[in-house]
Amino acid sequence: MMKAIPKSILIVLGLSLALNFFIGGLWIGKQLAHAGPDRSDRHVEFNLRGLRGALTEDQAATFRLIMREQRSTVRAKMGEQRRVKHALSEAMSAETLDIKLIESLLAEERSIAGDFREPMHQALLTLLPTLNHSERLSLVSALERSRTRPSRKKRERPGAENGDGDMPPPRP
Length: 172
Prior knowledge:
2 strands, two-stranded antiparallel ribbon
C-alpha cells in the first residue's frame, strides 16, 4: 500500500510551482515588451536635444529664433521656480509643520514646471506647418522615448578576472 504524502510537502511543492509560474510570466512579459517598435508605451517627450537632432540647419535656425523670442518668459519662470523651491525648503524645515502651505507650494511648483513647456510648444506649433510629412515623421521618431528604462550594464569591478569581482574592495 502506498503511503500518503505529508501535507507540508504538498504545500511546499504547490508554492514552488506557483513561484515558477510567476517567474516564467515575468520572463515572458519582458520578452514581449521588447518585441518591436510598434509598442503602445511609446510617447513623444519634448526635449530640445531630440528636437534639434531631427531638424535641418534651416529648420533648427528657425526654431532657435522662435525660442530666443521666448527666452525672457523662460527666465521669469525659472526665477519663480527658484523662489517656490526656496519657500518649500523653508516650509519643510520649519519647526512647526504647515502641511497646507507645503501642499500649495507643491501645487505652485507643478504649475510652474508645466509652464516651462509652453515656449517649446509655441515654437513647435510655428515650426510644424513648415515641415513635410516625412520630416514630421522624423521629428516624432526623434522625440519618442520608451517608458521602460534601458537595461543597465553590470559594472566590472577590479579583480573580476580573479573571481573577486562580486566583492567590494577592502576599506583602507
